[in-house]
Amino acid sequence: MSKTYKIALDKLPELYAQTAENRNLYLPIRRGGTLNFEAWHKDAAVDLYGLKTANTPKDLFLPQSEDLYTIKMDGTNIEVFAREFFDKPFAIFGIKACDIEAIKVLDNIYLSKQPVDMFYKARRDNAVLISLACNEPKNACFCHAFGLDAGNPGGDVTTWINGDNLYIQGQTDKGSAYVEEMSGLLEAADFGDLSGLQANIRETAQNLPYAKLPLDKGFTSEDMMAMFNSEQWGSFHRACIGCGTCTYSCPTCSCYDIKDHDGGDCKGVTRFRCWDSCMYPDFTLMAHGNNRLTQKERFRQRFMHKLMYHPMNYEGQFGCVGCGRCINKCPVSLNIVKIIKSLAEVKEDANA
Amino acid sequence: MLDENKTFEPLIVAFCCNWCSYAGADLAGTSRLSYPPNVKIIKVPCSCRVDPIFVLRAFGKGADGVIVCGCHPGDCHYSTGNYFTRRRFTLMFNLMDYLGIERDRMRLEWVSAAEATKFARVMNEFTETITNLGPNRQIVDLRNLPEGYEDLEREPHREILPPATDKSRDIPSVAKIEEQMKLRATKLLADGVVDRVLAWKKGDHETMPEPAFFDHPGQIEDLVYNKYCAPNLSKYLMNAPWLGGKLFDGSTLVFLKPCDSYSFNQLIKENLVNTDKVHIIGIGCGGTVQVEELEDAGMWEKCQVCTKVSHPVGDEIIDLSDDSPRLEKDARFELVEAIEALEAPDRFAYWQSQLSKCIRCNACRNTCPVCNCKRCVFSSDKMDMASKVNANEFEEQLFHIVRAYHVAGRCSDCGECSRVCPQDIPVHLLNRKFIKDINEFYGEYQAGENIEAPEPLTSYDLNNDGQIDINKGVRT
Amino acid sequence: MERIGFFVCHCGSNIKATVDPDVVLDGVRGIAGVVVAEQYPYMCAKTGQNMIADAIRDNQLTGLVVAACSPRMHEATFRKVAEAAGLNPYMVEIANIREHVSWIHKDKEEGSQKAVALAKAAIAKVKLNAPLFPEENSVVKRALVIGGGIAGIQAALDIAEAGFEVDLVEATPSIGGKMAQLDKTFPTLDCSACILTPKMVDAASHDKINIMTYAEVEKVEGFVGNFTVTVRKKARSVCMEKCTGCGDCWNKCPVKNVPLEFDLGLQNRKAIYIPFAQALPLVPVIDREHCIMFKSGKCGLCKTVCQPGAIQFDEVDELVEQKYGAVITATGFETINLDKFGEFAYNDSKDVITSFEFERITHGAGPTGGELVRLSDGRKPKSITFIQCVGSRDVTGRGKPYCSKICCMYTAKHAVLIKDKYPDIDVNVFYIDMRTPGKAYDEFYRRGAEEYGVKYIKGQVGKVVDKGTHLELSAVDMLDNVQLDLKTDMVVLATAIQPTASAKPLASKLSASIDTNNFMTEAHVKLRPVESPTAGVYLAGAGQGPKDIPETVGQAGAAAAKVIGLLSKKVLLSNPCTAAVDPKACNGCSLCSPVCPYGAISYGPMEINDHGFKTLERVSHVNLALCQGCGACVVVCPSGAMDLQGFSNKQLLAEVDALC
Q: Which residue, C613, A282, A135, is CA-closest to B362?
């Protein structure tokens, strides 16, 4: 384990400034009344104490939309211009354990199999992930259910707010290099100072209402078809209004659509990709129509993906990290916890 | 500044109706009356053919000024077309002004086929105005956070952040209403009067009731009604075969809070619900609360200013007791007025700051009872602006403007759009601006109150409408 | 892939002087789809037209753009060229580089660049044009005239004379209308009945005219050329065929106290009656509300005395359905109710009467046999005061904002008639303004004032009080600015007129629009004054706006001429630039129909097949024969399901994009 440092909380602006000297810095900023990961500037209202950002660090790796290439046409002459890959180094500060885990989910999707997604990779390679332990996990948090430790969130660099200081520890080479770069602002600290804090966090996290979910019941490949055919889907979706809030607020939802827009001059098009949501009727729309005709199928797709297909493809890693954003944000109080509990009950009933 | 402007050649798009203004422009040509070449004319059959989307599109694609010209009121070739144009653009220009976008960039003028001199004069004046204003960037940037956006946090608009919830408000208990709802639901199901019940179902947690259908009396024990039952149920009854699945052909008992019942009535007006198959019980409401981390986070702003105590539709009513606290003062326009009171650059900064947070999840649209199109123009290719979160395309900037315009005159101010926004954008303050202007210009109108009443944007009042200055947005 | 031909016209030097055609051609070459780009000094000349036609044939063009003068000049020309060369005429767009460019700009560089911009916009639009085809609709050679007053009678006669069948529908038991109630007409003072009755007889005896009295329009379906109208013929209880009009029935009828509508209640009638002696048809009607037989089942005297046996108590309303090519509305006017005008004591005094009542009192067949007397005591009045603008030009909200137009002249007529017959009666007229435009009208009014001694007082009457033996008036003489307190024996109120109550429901059945005062709206106030915005519906008489007899007759003739023109056509070609619904996108929300001035939009169920997924949905439908292509419905459609052919959303957006 690498060395632990600390910096007084009131000196954090200096840390931000120095971090931003060589890279863009993104961190939780309260703007227009909402907490989001946004680019830092000296007057920004940084808020490290708000538990959950409304957006997720995903936005910085998989932007809402991203141009891929442009085709220019002049008469019969057609040229294709590829977009250059993202090449500006940046750091994201203040990522919670759940969102760090979510980036691992995204890494699996975009980087673990060939071909890797070059646009994602370019951004990922340029990023330093600086995590922050959750001092006060709250009711809607259920990262514990997925075996995460909110008190030890990981990333390239991990930080903790302990008393009047921010404790910092490099976790990876990239992270240690960053800590080294900041060393002028840091003083050595004892990792042992954090044990009380970490214990508190774990204690809080495991006693939250949804800390224990029956994820061991039935979420395995042999139960897939039973789960898929469960009659419960017929009622689960009925309240769903088909918006994309759960997917766009989800740190792991990673689907995108590819579309073209013309520049308005009738002389070419730009191909871009943009977020898509399986909750939408035109998700994976094909010429023959849609294979998911009703909200029932769309709704099922999202949860089957998170709880079954993703674990089956990626060695048991769930597509959910327990951040609880969908619990807070769903307009009609639907969320993955309800689904997990209900599906597990089916399994239990069937076994009984 | 002046020197810079000398080289600035603005691009001006003029929409001219075929019968008057285009002919007026022709006559200007025939009479050799000159006006700047910056003005490019697009012919439309009638000024009522000009969709505000065209105007926004022109701005989005780089126009610096847009002018719409039509026949004088009373002279429309199609009799009434320009009466709708007049109302439409009065409200649109006012909304743009509210967004802090320079309203002088857009204009509406009546030019007859004989008024060549007026046509040339108007175009000369307008070009001069636009030249003085300089290049337009505002609409393009409405939802883009500019570099170094410190300016956004300027003091004047900080106080009008997304309207705050109020934790201090007394919310009367609705436990007695819940009790009676269960009795009625059980009885009506058991008696076969209805085949199912639409209400809220006990969630996994007290704060998480979800809209649900109950098919058997035995399920009614799970029915709940409390301050967490915010979701508007009216849209679930929409007769929308295009949503897929089999249409329910039995009858449904639905419980509607006052605000929900206005939405439902609007859906009746738009022929989107089958009233023969619905039994409505209006229920009293003491206000609903935001839930954060499974905790009561205070009463929603929309409930703090709600004065909808009665139900415009309903077969039965289960109301609050008479001594429950009721709002007397209609304070819902206070926030709109606060925004209006800002200087234009601050208004723009305010909306840029809010709208730049949008992730286009479409929750506002999907929850809105009057966003009931089969396919939204933003999800179809109908208007050539299918833009699924294409943040680089200007259409994306227009989403909230166009949505507000499309629901204008139909929005009953249920406030669901803002309630469901994951980014806490006060979307409903756009709709409320329309409502406020409609009330001021065309007489008090509450959507969903009376299905016979003509809607403000599809009707006109000749004695009144001419008294509104379209370009200034005030009563003269 | 589209193949667009682009042609720049020099218009001699008209365009070429300020727009360089070479610059324009350079500007459009290279735009995807442009396969021909040429110029010529006069594109509209035969050689120019041939050049275009050849290019269309040689290059299999799918679209044509001509940069030339205003489309108002030569769009039709180039469309014909295209059609002749095998290209759908609606695949043509014009870039207006003369009126909108060369004639207004002096700088050649600026002009050329603007011309390029307009050319690009036209090319962007034409790429999205679709071939359009006008629809052909047959025309039913029969007209319906609603309202049997002088307007309806004249229109029916004119149409019938042209050889077309006409049905004339009248709500009351007889045709004749308001004109039949009048004594004399201004300014010639000829007897109203003497000039009207022959027309009534002509209409009734015309073999092409079918008169349906005591009948109302129940339902209207269809559209121009093909209306299907259901008329309710109310039960008359008297057989039209058998009745000889002998009068035995109404002479014997024991019910004597029913106010006679035709006499404005100044005389009574029987329960079985004809409204007036010259009524046509001369067949009585049983007023079932007052008939003893219908009230108690006993009596039947009329049936007993009727020798032809025409009385049929068991008659029921008959619904007649008929197809028509065109409809004329001639529903006329009525006077407003004066309840809100208490200051004139109309409801309190028998000697305060309306001009219409005055008309009946002076009429030889009227309640007093033409004797001018006070209704209260039968005394001959020594002085009569006329009050103008009672409820007209009203700013108090109690009456009508408009001028009723006929009152100044009929009052002048009344004044002259009184003075002529009874020179000893003092006649005062209170007026706001005298409005006497019209041939020989002002002369007539002046003669009254100057030769007959009618006293005109500019001013308004504030109060009328009935003192039993006389009436007292408080008024202001605005010219002398003095308060006047007058005594008079009789007050005649020039009461405002308004469309008949039947106008509004009829307009709604016809989908014809009415204005805020319930007058029928014209398609264009100046240029199409006798046409309703709804194709195939025409307007005549005071139902369209206040007017006097000659104007009414003139308008009726004009409307008839329009109808004859329409019925003479073999087929009607519709304008193909109409609104069109994509039923797959329409959710039937019904926002579009309120803005359609032509009633062209209806809703109904349709089976929608989305990739084999079939549903029955309520969707909007545009009647292409009615739609005029304004686009109002398109803009109120939030989903874009409604679009306008020829000016589609995508076409206009493409133009915007190309310009910006």
A: A282
